């Protein structure tokens, strides 16, 4: 390269491990990957959509178009001394960031974001990923020359959290970033991820309109069931049934495709056979839908062919900026009076309450919601993730941490997905909101916890260190959740015991002492005691100034 230094020669092999699906600041998604020679036309198209100002800030002067030689240079990199990452949404390139090594441990960087996508956090994500690739290639510092008027870029570089220095010379600000991770840069990354994932779930749970794709007239059909539940819940926005052959479903005008719906569609519930889901995802992307709830089965739960179909579903959806709940899920619900969303297969959804409820199981979801409703325990929102092609319990934790309507979080988990991230999130969130977990013994694919490399004792230890409350079954999950949501905290550790058995009273006293409480001598009402005896006895103990609970 003629830079007066040498580096170890590495074959210019495409580094596929640099590819990633990312969530942007507004809750949308994009795909990040290294640039390829085949991206030449994509780069030309991207450049043609840039404003004169964006081009001026990048090249320090007007440049109406890129020459063939420039396009060839920008798209042909060695992935060592010259690296470029692009962000794509669907087939279109919306941003590019690159570095060129200029000396030992140092590289110059530059980036461009399409004007229509500026302000979505694309550049921040690309900078994080480029810094990681640079460290992998032995680069310790980034240098950027920035025009003083380009406040957006200088702000981005300063706010990345790395140690930054700047100097003004010849009308240009030269900024130097030390790429050594700092506590601040780590916090910036975590905070950006948190905001983005929280916002993406908020978009799913607070749609302004919903389309039900596959809503047939067949009584008891999956699509019609979701449609009727949406209507029965009095959803506050328009609901659009989509069916290729019928004119109306449940008395509501139907459309032959989502693309032919007159208004905007924020959320689409997909209830078509598995073979047709991928085509529907593409139609939804073209319509501008923000999120999908796929209740259709026939994916990862059915074997290798279904797993491949599920992976393709996730890939297509994320490439177009869509988040996906499911497939093979029960659906989602939000009891906020401003939304009133019941996009589930469950006719009974609990009323408004303080509990956020996540269930990994679609099959158990209906029974779980009925049980919660029977107890009179309201929920703030509910998500059944099914096969978790995309949205997981980690995403919901991010959302519920920010949601003022949620004071207690209940999780029914069959597997942990990313245990490291789950633990990090749970440890932070459990400081302010109780998180109660029931972890079943297996996963949808039939693997036990031990087969996944995490013995049950390790999971219990992991939960305890994160500050979670682990319970043994669903009854305990709801008992503890109801207690945390509706029972005020005792003023102190003094506990009165009212019983009809000395042996049970002693066991209860021992359990209290084991967790640091101060039990009083049990009041034994005798084996024949019933409600008439317990009522006055409990009232008397609670009225005592020496009793906290």
What does this structure look like?
The chain has 549 residues and is of the alpha/beta class. Helix content is 35%, strand content 23%. The chain has 16 helices and 26 strands. The strands form six sheets. The protein has an eight-stranded mixed β-sheet with strand order 1-2-3-4-5-6-8-7, sandwiched between helices. A seven-stranded mixed β-sheet has the order 17-16-19-18-20-21-22, sandwiched between helices. Strands 10-9-13-14-15 form a five-stranded parallel β-sheet, sandwiched between helices. Helix 6 (183-205) crosses helix 11, helix 8 packs parallel to helix 9 (304-319) and helix 11 (393-402) runs parallel beside helix 12 (419-429). The longest helix has 23 residues, at 183-205. The chain is globular, with a radius of gyration of 28 Å. The model is unreliable at 1-11 and 442-453 (pLDDT under 50).
Radius of gyration: 28 Å
Largest sheet: 8 strands, mixed
Proportion of residues in helical segments: 25-40%
Task: Give me the number of helical elements.
Answer: 16
By secondary-structure content and strand pairing, the structural class works out as: alpha/beta
The percent range for strand residues is 15-25%
- Principal-axes geometry comes out as globular
What is the first-to-last residue Cα distance?
A: 76 Å
Total DSSP E strands: 26
How confident is the prediction overall: mean pLDDT? 91
Task: Detail the poorly predicted runs.
Answer: 1-11, 442-453
Main-sheet strand order equals: 1-2-3-4-5-6-8-7
SSE diagram, text form:
Layout: E1 20-23, E2 29-34, H1 40-48, H2 52-59, H3 68-75, E3 82-89, E4 92-103, E5 106-113, H4 122-136, E6 141-146, H5 151-159, E7 163-169, E8 172-178, H6 183-205, E9 210-213, H7 222-232, E10 239-242, E11 248-249, E12 252-253, E13 267-270, H8 274-287, E14 291-294, H9 304-319, E15 323-325, E16 331-334, E17 341-344, E18 352-359, H10 365-374, E19 379-384, H11 393-402, E20 408-413, H12 419-429, E21 435-439, H13 456-465, E22 469-471, H14 474-486, E23 494-495, E24 498-499, H15 502-514, E25 518-519, E26 523-524, H16 531-543
Parallel strand pairs: 5-6, 9-10, 9-13, 13-14, 14-15, 18-19, 18-20, 20-21, 21-22, 23-25, 24-26
Antiparallel strand pairs: 1-2, 2-3, 3-4, 4-5, 6-8, 7-8, 11-12, 16-17, 16-19
Helix pairs in contact: 6-11, 8-9, 11-12
Pfam families: Acetyltransf_1, CoA_binding_2, Succ_CoA_lig
Protein name: GNAT family N-acetyltransferase
Domain N-acetyltransferase: 30-180
């Amino acid at each position: 390269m003629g830079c007066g230094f040498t580096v170890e020669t590495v074959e210019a092999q495409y580094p596929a491990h640099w590819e990633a699906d990312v969530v942007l600041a507004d809750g949308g998604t994009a795909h990040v990957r290294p640039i390829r020679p085949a991206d030449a036309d994509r780069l030309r198209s991207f450049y043609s959509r840039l404003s004169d100002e964006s081009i001026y800030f990048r090249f320090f002067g007007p440049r109406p178009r890129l020459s063939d030689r420039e396009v060839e240079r920008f798209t042909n990199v060695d992935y060592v001394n010259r690296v470029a990452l692009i962000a794509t949404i669907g087939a279109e390139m919306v941003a590019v960031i690159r570095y060129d090594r200029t000396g030992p441990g140092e590289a110059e960087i530059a980036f461009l974001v399409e004007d229509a996508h500026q302000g979505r956090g694309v550049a921040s994500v690309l900078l994080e990923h480029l810094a990681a690739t640079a460290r992998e290639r032995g680069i310790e510092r980034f240098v950027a020359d920035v025009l003083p008027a380009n406040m957006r870029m200088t702000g981005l570089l300063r706010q990345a959290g790395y140690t930054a220095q700047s100097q003004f010379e010849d009308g240009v600000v030269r900024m130097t970033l030390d790429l050594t991770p700092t506590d601040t840069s780590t916090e910036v990354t975590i905070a950006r991820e948190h905001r983005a994932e929280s916002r993406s779930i908020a978009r799913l749970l607070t749609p302004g309109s919903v389309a039900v794709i596959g809503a047939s007239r067949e009584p008891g059909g999956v699509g019609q069931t979701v449609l009727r539940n949406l209507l029965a819940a009095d959803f506050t926005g328009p609901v659009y049934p989509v069916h290729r052959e019928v004119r109306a479903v449940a008395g509501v005008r139907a459309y032959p495709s989502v693309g032919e719906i007159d208004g905007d569609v924020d959320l689409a519930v997909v209830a078509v056979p598995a073979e047709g889901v991928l085509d529907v995802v593409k139609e939804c992307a073209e319509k501008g839908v923000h999120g999908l709830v796929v209740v259709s089965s026939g994916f990862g739960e059915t074997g290798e062919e279904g797993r491949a179909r599920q992976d393709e579903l996730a890939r297509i959806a994320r490439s177009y900026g869509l988040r996906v709940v499911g497939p093979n899920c029960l659906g989602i619900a939000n009891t906020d009076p401003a939304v009133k969303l019941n996009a589930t297969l469950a006719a009974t959804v609990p009323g408004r309450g303080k509990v956020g409820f996540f269930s990994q199981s679609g099959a158990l979801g209906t029974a779980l919601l009925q049980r919660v409703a029977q107890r009179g325990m309201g929920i703030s929102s509910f998500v059944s993730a099914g096969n978790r092609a995309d949205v997981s319990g980690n995403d919901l934790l991010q959302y519920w941490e920010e949601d003022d309507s949620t004071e207690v979080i209940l999780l029914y988990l069959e597997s942990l997905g990313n245990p490291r991230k789950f633990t990090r999130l749970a440890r932070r969130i459990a400081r302010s909101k109780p998180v109660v977990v029931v972890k079943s013994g297996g996963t949808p694919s039939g693997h036990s916890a031990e087969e996944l490399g995490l013995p049950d004792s390790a999971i219990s230890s992991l939960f305890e260190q994160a500050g979670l409350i682990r319970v043994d079954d669903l009854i305990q999950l709801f008992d503890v959740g109801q207690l945390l949501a509706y029972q005020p905290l005792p003023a102190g550790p003094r506990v009165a015991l009212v019983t009809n058995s000395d042996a049970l009273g002693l066991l209860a006293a021992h359990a209290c002492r084991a967790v640091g409480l101060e039990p009083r001598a049990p009041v034994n009402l005798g084996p024949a005691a019933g409600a008439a005896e317990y009522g006055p006895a409990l009232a008397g103990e609670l009225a005592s100034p020496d009793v906290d609970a």
